[in-house]
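Workshop exercise sheet. Pairs work together: one partner reads the sequence aloud, the other fills in the structure field after running the prediction. Swap roles for the next sheet.
Pair: D.N. / O.F.
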Amino acid sequence: MNAQASSSRAAAGSRARTKPPTGRVTAGRAAASRGTASRAAASRATVGRGAGRRAALGRPAASRVTASQRTAATSPAGSKRGETPKARGERTRGRVADALVSLLEGGDPAPTAKAVAAEAGVSVRLVFHHFEDMESLYRTVMALQAAQYWDAVEAVPADRPLEDRIDLVVGQRAKLFESVSAVRRAGMNLAPRQPDIAEWIADADGRLRGWLEETFGPELRYAGRERRELLSALDTAASWEAWDRMRRAEHLSVAAARRVTGRMLRSLLG
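Structure field:
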């Protein structure tokens, strides 16, 4: 009996020695798990710090950009389904030209390509895809304004009463100059180094002088030898430069500038 008990206890001890120590293994696994978690957390923190540094430097964190996202980023806003490439290109050119005019009228004397692109809602690359350089964009804008504003002006008929002619000329020029002043002012700055723009301005000035010569033809003929000086005086009094000075340097309202222009014309023709 005692021998059987001793044998039983020996077998139990053997099984106890060969059975894994459950508590110690569980603790070790937990420690290993905590170590893995700590390393993962450290890795995420490192990635986070890297992203933070990239953000601080103005560089976005790396991400996958899809083709549709690239297209959306570089395509002109508001593209129309089924629009042909040519029509889309013409519309984009118009948006860029309008953006330049908007910035000039808003008080920016020399908008950058980046500013124009932002205003138009397109990329800078797309701006220079449609225009060789900023001077080319200015030339396009001036041509558009010539068609929109200058080509719509006609000389006031010379057979109308003098007072009516003066009032009509003043009103006509006030409307024209208010519409084109921002672009004209930018063109004046570019003209010394851009022959095409200088030629456009000279053509515009020639039109203004020609309209006066036609409208006030009877008075100019009556002036005889002083005809040329009288025409030059009329041209100066009703010029864009005089209008711009009154509006910007003297801060006159449109109504006040019209009255001053009319007063000068009457004093010359009366």
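Discussion prompt: The CA atoms of residues 75 and 184 lie 31 Å apart. What would you look at next?
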